[in-house]
Specification:
By secondary structure, this protein is α/β, with parallel strands linked by helices. The chain has one domain: Purple Acid Phosphatase, chain A, domain 2 (4-Layer Sandwich), CATH 3.60.21. The protein has seven helices and 17 strands. It has a nine-stranded mixed sheet.
């Protein structure tokens, strides 16, 4: 039997394998290709807990042990914390992928088996290695719990930006809105661009018109904005975490933060990309800038063991809670 046939056989086994999972949390409704709702009606809620994972870099050649440790860690976090939603802010996959489509199928099914809504934003490495955005979109369309939305730009090209409304306690009005952006991967496109900000303004304005109030929002994407570097120059403003690496904001010119500030609905930005930073703090204008904690074992992470972030979005007003997470039995390097 060929190696590809063996891999296909293993994937089929994985897809058919069932385990005892926690009860399902939330239900997903698709309103449009670029807009979804997640309804939480199982119990009254004081906050919505989002486990952010970033830079897992699954698929590195000869990194099977590291990939296994990464997936084991994620499952442990979910068992310990029982989050409502998983947010994956890019580089779920590495650039040089082993077994490409099979890897995407495995990761999608693995995350589905955690039995709760999860959403994905593209990182700079996800479309590399011979598999592009179209293949990842196609596979994720088969997901039970995964969300990856798209919209068309003025030229009819797909953009992987979308809005998720979070509804709690049987309310018809969202408690929070999550804006997910593709911050790009190719040179000339490695930041959130003007056409994506135009889409954001349109969605935010439509929300204001529909609900008659500004719904608090959180923006999720991979590559940080320039203001993370400005925040790092004054660690006294940090609310937590550490700065160990120059901020790689790639092509961002500061306009993304300014657009969020001007619209007035985004209360936090959540990113990944820089594995050796995990700080968070409030920048000028009041938006909370949050770095994820590198979650994968096969990427670089010199100062600490891989981990995650837990975000708590209050239902009845108040500050966003942020916790940096490392499992008790794992130590920093």
């Amino acid at each position: 039997m060929s190696r590809r046939m063996v891999m296909l056989f293993l994937v089929v086994l994985l897809l058919g394998f069932t385990t005892n999972q926690p009860f399902a949390k939330g239900s997903i409704t698709k309103l449009a290709d670029d807009q979804y709702q997640i309804h939480f009606s199982d119990e009254p809620k004081d906050s919505i807990r989002i486990l952010q994972l970033t830079d897992l870099h699954l698929g590195n050649p000869n990194a099977h042990r590291q990939n296994f440790q990464t997936t084991k860690r994620i499952k442990k976090f979910v068992e310990l914390l029982n989050p409502d939603v998983l947010a994956i802010t890019g580089d779920l996959y590495t650039g040089k992928k082993v077994d490409r489509e099979y890897l995407i199928v495995f990761a999608t099914q693995y995350l589905d088996d955690l039995n709760r809504p999860w959403f994905f934003t593209f990182g700079n490495h996800d479309p590399e290695g011979g598999i592009g955005r179209d293949s990842i979109r196609t596979i994720m369309q088969c997901s039970q719990w995964g969300i990856l939305g798209t919209h068309a730009d003025t030229q009819g090209l797909k953009k992987d930006d979308y809005l998720i409304e979070l509804l709690t306690n049987d309310s018809a009005t969202p408690t929070w809105e999550l804006y997910a952006f593709d911050s790009g991967s190719e040179k000339g496109n490695k930041s959130v661009k003007a056409d994506q900000l135009a889409w954001f303004r349109e969605k935010a304005s439509a929300s204001l018109a529909k609900y008659g109030a500004t719904i608090s929002g959180v923006a999720f994407f991979h590559i940080p904005v320039r203001q993370y570097a400005d925040l790092a120059k004054n660690p006294a403003t940090f609310k937590g975490g550490a700065f160990h690496e120059e901020v790689c904001f790639e092509e961002d010119d500061g306009s993304v933060y300014d657009a969020f500030l001007q619209q007035g609905n985004v209360r936090a930005i959540v990113v990944g990309h820089d594995h050796d930073n995990n700080y968070w703090g409030t920048f000028n204008g009041g938006i909370l800038l949050i770095y994820g904690h590198v979650s994968g074992d096969s990427g670089y992470h010199r100062p600490w063991a891989p981990g995650a972030k837990l975000l708590s979005l209050p239902v009845r007003g108040g500050e966003i809670g942020v916790q940096d997470l490392v499992l008790p039995d794992e130590r920093a390097f």
